[in-house]
Amino acid sequence: MSGKARDDAPDYKKEKKRVDNRKMDELRPISIKVGVLPNADGSAYLEWGQNKVYAAVFGPREALPKHTQNPMKAVMKVTYRMATFSVPERKQPRPNRRDMEISKVLGEALDKAVFTEQFPNTEIAVFVEVVDSNAGSRVACLTAASCALANAGIPMRDLVAATGIGKAFGELIVDLNKEEEDAPDAVDIPIAIMPNSGEIVLLQMDGLLTKEEWAKLAPMGIKACKAVYEIQKKALQEKFPISELSEANVEAEVAGKDSKEVPAKSETKVVAPAKAEKKDDKKADKAKKVKK
Ligand code: ADP
Fold it and tell me: In what order do the strands lie in the sheet with 199-203?
């Protein structure tokens, strides 16, 4: 990945800040919106710095052709694509080896999170489209895809939260941008975890690190993934706000009680049907009087 060496290459150890003024462990701004594509069963749009990606989920649906079916579980079929205009030099629309590699590793990562065993002989199709990119597009796509799966209502152990970590211009850093990915000493490590269990579901490495550097970098990656996770949860909560009633149900479930036994906080607010009943009673009384 390391590209053209710059004559005026920065020295992060001295300068203490990055080419885009970020701190060494700072992510680029991330925003996520779920449920943006009505034709899909679940979808998400994510902006991560300059990266802009869409994720669309279909299924679980019958896996076709039939020989692709697995009688034990659903098959995750991920298709990663970059728009021709998503990079400075036109990208060939035909899927290349990189597109196929990324589709494969994203599928393997999402497969760990989904309860695929609940849907034998089916496929869950995930399409991720990069419309603008500046390094870290695979982790952006993985983050968006897991939100789209949740939006589709597919049962999951956890969301998958991802980020890039690595090294550039002499320092260990989080979320490399394109200039950093092209640094002469660049090391690029996409990492994804399921934050509740801490299980790593994607880990790739382009470049070399010492054991000591990895020991410092890994916790930076986990921390950054957890920050991404918070943004994912917020995006889903915006789409599916938790009402007081469902909050009471959750509390009841945690307490191990039947939710119907627990008086919901909002029960006192449900006055409309009671009023209507009273009106009906009055009407019935009047009718009785008239009959008499
Ligand atoms: P990631 O996008 O996950 O960082 P890579 O490590 O392979 O994946 O980095 C490739 C980056 O290079 C892309 O994010 C993109 O910004 C940039 N790039 C520029 N031209 C191309 C191209 N033709 N194909 C793929 N990536 C390109």
Answer: 171-174, 161-168, 187-194, 199-203
Q: List pLDDT tens digits, range 71-97.
A: 999 999 999 999 999 999 999 999 999
Residues within a 6 A CB radius of ligand 1 = 1, 82, 87, 89, 91, 98, 133-138, 178, 181, 188, 190
Residue 144 is part of which domain span? Answer: 12-239
pTM of the model: 0.84
In our burial notation (b when 16+ CB lie closer than 10 A, e otherwise), range 164-202 reads bbbbbbebbbbbbbbbbbbbeebbbbbbbbbbeeeebbb
Do the domain assignments include residue 173?
yes
Protein residue with its CA nearest to atom 10 in ligand 1: 135
Q: Which of 50, 87, 97, 204 to mutate to test the pocket of ligand 1 (most atoms within 8 A of CB)?
A: 87
Is residue 96 located within the same domain as residue 185? yes
